[in-house]
Amino acid sequence: MINFNFNQHEHIDTGVLIIGVPDHINQLGTIQYKNHDLTQRIDDYRHHHIIHNTLGKVASTVLPLESETKRLITVGLGNLKTLNYTDLLKVFGNLFQFLKEEHITDAELLFDTFISKQITQDKIIEVLGLQSEQAIYIFDNYKSDKKVPYKLDLHITTQDTHLETHLKQGIIVGQSINLARDFSNIPPNILTPSYFADEVAEHFKETKVKVDIKDGETLLSEGFGLIHAVGKGSIHPPTLITLTYNGAKEDEAPIALVGKGITYDSGGYSIKSKVGMQTMKYDMCGAANVVGMIEAASRLELPINIVGVIASAENMISNNAMKPDDVFTALSGETVEMLNSDAEGRMVLGDAVFYANQFQPRIILDFATLTGAAIVALGEDKAALFNSHAENEIQEILASARAMDELAFELPITNTEQRLIRRSDVADLVNHTNGQGKALFAATFVTHFSGTTPHIHFDIAGPATTPTNSFKGPKGPTGSMITTVLNWLRN
Ligand code: BES
Ligand code: MN
Ligand code: ZN
Questions:
Q1: Which positions fall inside the Cytosol aminopeptidase domain (predicted)?
Q2: Of 48, 176, 219, 363, which alpha carbon lies 20 to 30 A from 146's?
Q3: CB within 8 A of 469, min separation 6: which ones?
Q4: Nearest ligand (C-alpha, residue 340)
Q5: What is the pLDDT of residues 262-287, one digit of tens each?
Q6: Is 343 in the pocket of ligand 1 (CB under 6 A)?
């Protein structure tokens, strides 16, 4: 928990002073603290390599003043002419991780030393807010030896007092990412589809977000044949969670956000290898990230309508499980020959997308850890985006991803794949191809169910999790595409 205070002039008596240090100190103007001009001293410290201007490099030293001695913590800003959003993520990520490691509980940050020639102070403080949450996230709910929660009183000194709202917006986004991470991290024996649904409902009770849950029996009786098929091998029945947030007039067409919520993907009868199965609790990251996006949109009070649809199921093996060669009837009324039970994501999404389309959305965005093939194509750190009738919107979203430091690239849907998804001897569609291009096939299958509605499919199999710690936080779930989509929704 970081508690922020704003003050304009009167300096708070904390033992720690935090300053940003650029390559050329004169770019900052004077660094004034109380009645001291620290500019020369900071430059001397830098000259003697006691502190650093290298981008994101944190240093700590002593700052003797007339009446008191303080601890000075600096973070390098590099060249202010080129300092961009990604750089700021690094600056504040490294800073907050340092403050936490050093158990600093009280500090004053001279915000007016954090400037860029490219980015406004509003945006800079938003990044600070974002990183105060995102960068120091931990998940130790299932450790006996829990870390004492980190507490910091951070006094922000700035001449610009209207910055507080921007700081809060950054904090909201950071907390939404951490909410998504929390759901993703819960072990799969606990986070079953119904537990997931109940926790989402619990989280949004007494908010503007309405939550509706369809349980396994309801899904069966209402014709969600593909979600039911995937979930029926598990003792934990599937669920469909619908979230609605109305920030605009009730009759305005919503944006639909659809999430793959496979709480565990064993592969089913098309079973995964023992190594392939590890980490498959993360097969609900798409759904968790949709929850995070809606959390942020509602707390930011965005003037739009959103409908969130999460299809949740556990992909398991039992007497009752689906098996290759089975045929199921989708909510759309079409029949699907199920040739590979490990291609379960596109099945649950087929019904979820068809259902979302009934809300007559402006556009559908779906998020899914859908294929290993997307990782083969783009590597572990990039999202594969596919557009169906959304040529302009995908360009906007790709630009938003670049601005938000998330890696996202477009892959195509062509007539080749349109033919392949129909290549079944017995049914209308088939869920699997033995050929190459498996990410494209899956994307085509999923977007088939939205017809001509603009639809962008996000295959986040790679970036949903990260194998390494960074200035964005610990290894594990990342909240992939939350900042990209929010930035797009806000503009
Ligand atoms: N959840 C997996 C995709 C996945 C793999 C996500 C690795 C993250 C890391 C998905 O359900 C799956 O099993 N896809 C198969 C599809 C195949 C059977 C056509 C795959 O990619 O191997
Ligand atoms: Mn699978
Ligand atoms: Zn899966």
A1: 340-347
A2: 176
A3: 475
A4: 1
A5: 999 999 999 999 999 999 999 999 99
A6: yes
Superfamily of domain 174-490, CATH level 4? Zn peptidases (3.40.630.10)
Q: Is the pLDDT of residue 9 over 80?
A: no
Examine the pLDDT at 323 and tell me if it is beyond 90. Answer: yes
134 Cα: distance to centroid of ligand 1 (angstroms): 27
Class of 2-158 in CATH: alpha beta
Q: Give how far Cα 213 sits from Cα of 196, 283, 364, 399, 432, Å.
A: 10, 20, 20, 35, 29
Cβ distance 294 to 209 under 8 Å? yes
Rounded distance, CA 289 to CA 267, Å? 22
- What string of DSSP letters covers 99-118? HHHTT--EEEEEGGG---SS
Question: Residue 297: which region, alpha, beta or left (left: phi > 0; alpha: psi -120 to 50)?
Answer: alpha
- Please answer whether residues 268 and 316 qualify as being in contact, where contact means their C-beta atoms are separated by less than 8 angstroms: yes
Distance 210 CA to ligand 2 centre (A): 30
Domain boundary assignment for the chain = 2-158, 174-490
Ligand 1 contacts CB of residue 283 (under 6 A): yes
Ligand 1 nearest-atom number relative to CA 315: 11
Residues classed as catalytic: 272, 346
| Ligand 1 pocket, residue 340 CB under 6 Å | yes
- What's the gap in Å between 169 CA and the centre of ligand 3? 33
Phi, psi torsion values for 471, nearest 5 degrees: -70, -5
Question: 352-379, pLDDT tens digit by residue?
Answer: 999 999 999 999 999 999 999 999 999 9
Nearest CA to ligand 1 atom 13: 342
Beta-strand pair 465-466/326-329 = unpaired
- Residue pair 214/239 in contact by the 8 Å Cβ criterion: yes
Residue 432 Cβ < 6 Å to ligand 1: yes
Instruction: Report the predicted TM-score, pTM, of the whole model to 2 decimal places.
Output: 0.98
Tell me, what amino acid is at 136? I
